[in-house]
Amino acid sequence: MKRLLILNLIALAALSGIAAQQIPTSTPAPTPPPGPSPAAQRPPGVITVEMKADIAMARKEYRKAIELYQSIEPQTHVTLNKIGIGYHHLMELEKAKKYYERSAKMKKDYSEALNNLGAVHYAKRSYRRAVSWYNKALKYAPASASIHSNLGTAWFARKKYDRAAKEYQIALDLDPEVFEHRGTTGVLLQERSVQERAKFHYYLSRVYAQAGMADRCLMYMRKALEEGFRDRKKFVEDPEFAAMQQVPEFQALLEWEPRVL
User: Fold this and answer.
1) Does the pLDDT of residue 24 top 90, yes or no?
2) Using one digit for the tens of pLDDT, what is the confidence trace for 109-129?
3) Of 248, 182, 176, nearest to 211 (Cα)?
4) What is the rounded distance in angstroms from the CA atom of residue 69 to the CA atom of residue 50?
5) pLDDT digit string (tens) for 145-184?
6) 165 and 153 in contact (C-beta within 8 Å)?
7) Mind giving me the DSSP string for 68-109?
8) Which residue pairs, CB below 8 angstroms and at least 24 apart, start in 51-60?
9) How far apart, in whole angstroms, are the C-alpha atoms of residue 4 and residue 126?
10) Is this prediction's pTM over 0.70?
């Protein structure tokens, strides 16, 4: 009886071994090779019509840029705004205004087009309307240094110098390079033209002094004096210049008698 039990156990073990050999072990499926990335699938070196138009704009080929933008279908608020900028550079202000208005109508919160409408009115010396449009643009883009700068320049043109200085200070806080940008491309125009350039540079000097940017303060102070700014006591009495009083270059400029440009 004992021997029979042993034989049965041996047979059962043998059967178990056979079954184990017949049951395939599960192995992970091989990982397929990665396919090409979306960037690799795109044809290399493709330049869109809008890119060609942007290049023409950067080269100041404004007529060519306008024609290219106008050929794009469907038009978007961005391309309409860019067409307006092309006409703006050509000083065809009514056409520029029309396209800015179409852009703003297509996208009511498009601050760039609203800003550029302000720039049209500024160019027409309608400074009150310029202020209004810049304020509308700031409702949708309150952190735009360029729009604050433009609003400051419009206030400056209206001889509201304290309001102008306030906007310039906000613009500088948002972007320390805002007054140094010189690009002519993009979707937002930044106004540079002022009539009272000596006084304008005095205020920029004051804004930079308040911000603790001594080199820029001195640069615009020099420009103000070169352009005939006569009220030198402001550089001494205005509290914004307090930290500059002991700077040797600042003191030298106070004594400087430039040949007025």
Assistant:
1) no
2) 999 999 999 999 999 999 999
3) 176
4) 6
5) 999 999 999 999 999 999 999 999 999 999 999 988 765 4
6) no
7) HHHT-SS--HHHHHHHHHHHHHTT-HHHHHHHHHHHHHHSTT
8) 53/82, 54/82, 54/185, 57/82, 57/85, 57/86, 57/184, 57/185, 58/184, 58/185, 60/89, 60/184
9) 115
10) yes
